[in-house]
Amino acid sequence: MRKADVDLLDGAKTYWVPAVHAPVCDWPGAPGCRRGARFLIDEASLRPARDNYPLFESRGDCLRWIMAHRVELVRTAPDADVTPVDLARWLLGLSG
Fold first, then answer.
1. Helices (H), the chain
2. Are 59 and 80 in contact (CB under 8 A)?
3. pLDDT in tens, 26-76
4. Who's near 30: CB < 8 A, 6+ residues apart?
5. Long-range contacts of 3-12 (CB under 8 A, 24+ apart)
6. What is the dihedral of CA 30, 31, 34, 36, to 10 degrees?
7. Cα(94)–Cα(42) distance, integer angstroms
8. Residue 8: helix, strand or coil by DSSP?
């Protein structure tokens, strides 16, 4: 999902995305970031990013995707917990 396409989503539905917080300043997962910076996970590279993220219609589907890619996520998002978050709340800064 491209961030530019968010307006095309059905506002009556809840969508889930994998997200992560930078655990430290200048985190290896996103060099130059501040501690606590919020990122979604890029669908292709599986790296912390703010665009091109996978989109799921249920929290369970998002969790299954995270578990299926956990080995790569440990490498690309070291020392951080990748969790499913409600996309609308994330975009508003209200959740992980």
1. 59-68, 70-76, 87-91
2. no
3. 999 999 999 999 999 999 999 999 889 999 999 999 999 999 999 999 999
4. 22, 37, 39, 47, 48
5. 3/50, 3/51, 3/53, 4/51, 6/87, 6/91, 9/55, 9/87, 11/88
6. 30
7. 20
8. helix
pLDDT at 4 over 70: no
Q: Are strands 48-49 and 38-41 parallel, antiparallel or unpaired?
A: antiparallel
Q: Where are the domains of the chain?
A: 15-91
C-beta atoms surrounding 84 within 10 Å:
20
pTM exceeds 0.70: yes
44-to-1, 3, 41, 50, 67 alpha-carbon distances in Å? 11, 15, 9, 13, 16
- CA 46 to chain CA centroid, nearest Å: 9
